Amino acid sequence: MSVTHVSNNITCGDIARGGDVHARRVDREQGAWINYRMKCSGIQQKDIAKRLGVSQQMVQRVAYGVGTSARVQKALAQALGHANWTELVATRQGVAA
Description:
The protein is mostly helical. The protein has 6 helices and 2 strands; from the N terminus they run E-E-H-H-H-H-H-H.
């Protein structure tokens, strides 16, 4: 099956694999807000990275919307008290998930 890109950086391959179809990049403002929330909560990117076995730079890239990783997005959301990335992003946008 070929992978075709669709909106919000989600691919048909992601959907076929049962991935988080809501995983999407955040914009610069949302990324700054996520990192501000992490700082206020005493959560460090390096701690999330260590727990997931990825680099701190990977966590930083996802948090600021430069990259995507459903696993990192889920860990960031849960660390900030949300069930998933969609809920976290919706909180910033002021809408219900």
